[in-house]
Amino acid sequence: MNEELARHHLSLIQGQRPAVHCLTNTVVQSLTANMLLAIGAIPSMSSDITEVADFTARSQALLINLGTLDPGRKDAIQAAITSAKNNNIPWILDPVLIDRAPARLAYAQELIGQAPAIIRGNAGEIAALGSDPKSLAQSSQSIVAVTGAIDFVTDGHRESELRVGHDLMSRVTGIGCAGTAAIAAFCAVVTDADYFDAVVSGLYILGKSGENAARKAPGPGAFAATILDEVYFTSQSSSTEGSPK
User: Fold this and answer.
1) What confidence tens digit (pLDDT) does each residue in 61-98 have?
2) Contacts 24+ apart (CB under 8 A), 131-140
3) What angle do CA 161, 223, 124 make, to 5 degrees?
4) What percentage of the chain has pLDDT greater than the value 70?
5) Cα-to-chain-centroid distance, residue 56
6) Domain 2-237 - what CATH class?
7) pLDDT at 1 (0 to 100)
8) Is 161 exposed, middle or buried (0-12, 13-18, 19+ CB in 10 A)?
C-alpha cells in the first residue's frame, strides 16, 4: 500500500509541479533544490526579508530548516511562517541539531507554537523536545516524523513504521534535509489538510530511492548523485492516472 499511495502522490506532483519555498541549511541548498527538481517540484531559496513573504505566498509549501541560523535568517523565518499561515500554506519544521544548543532548542519550541503541519527530525532531535513522538504530535497538533534506521510517523492517533533506506544515506551531508523538502512537496499537493499519508509517501520514496542508489553507487560521492537519479526515475515512471485502491 505504501508504494501505491506514494506513486499516487508522485503523479499529483508531476501534474501540478508545486512550488516549495525553502529556508534551509546553507550547506545543503544545492542538494535540496535538486531533490525537489528530481521529484517534479519547483524550489526557491530566498531568505531576503524584502521578498521572502512574497515567495512563500506564491508557493504551495514552506520548509523551515534550522541548520544554519543568524538573526537575519530568524527574521526571514518569521516573515515566511506568517505568510504561510495567512495563505493557508502548510509549513514543515526540520529542527536540526536542537539537541546540541539550548538556545536553538528554545527557538524550535517557539516555532512549534506557531503550528507547523509537520515536524521532521531524528530521534535525538525529537527527544530533545521533551516528549515521545505521539505526545508531541498531540500537543503540537502536528504530524511528527522521526527518521533513522526505521522511520516512524504519527499524528498522535495513527502510526506508521517504514523499514526502507540504506546506511549510505547517513554518509552524505544533507540527505535528511533534502528529504524533508521532498516531504514538503508531497504535502503541497494535498487538498484536505490531512498530511499523514503524504509524509509516509515522501519517506517511502526517499527510502526506496536510497536502497536502489546504494545498489549502484560504490561510495558516498556517487551515491549523492545516484539517489537524485533514482528519485527522478521513480517520479517519471509514476502514472498520472488513477488513485490508490
Assistant:
1) 999 999 999 999 999 999 999 999 999 999 999 999 99
2) 134/159, 140/112, 140/115, 140/116
3) 40
4) 97
5) 16
6) alpha beta
7) 55
8) exposed
Place of cell 526517499: 206
**What was the pLDDT predicted at 241?**
46
* Band (131; pLDDT cuts 50, 70, 90): confident
Domain ranges in the chain? 2-237
C-alpha cell at 111: 516555532
**CA dist., res. 33 & res. 200, Å (int):** 21
List CB contacts of 202: < 8 A, sequence separation 6 or more.
6, 9, 179, 182, 183, 185, 186, 187
DSSP string, 193-210: S--HHHHHHHHHHHHHHH
- Region of 174 please: left (phi>0), alpha (psi -120 to 50) or beta: left
Q: Output the CA torsion sign for 22, 222, 96, 119.
A: positive
C-beta separation of 160 from 209 below 8 A:
no
Nearest-angstrom CA–CA distance, 139 and 152? 17
Structure-block grid coordinates of residue 120: 521532521
Please give the model's pTM, rounded to 2 decimal places: 0.94
**What is the predicted pLDDT for the residue at 159?**
97
Nearest to 2 by CA among 226, 236, 196: 196
Closest to 95 (Cα-Cα) out of 73, 139, 128, 55: 128
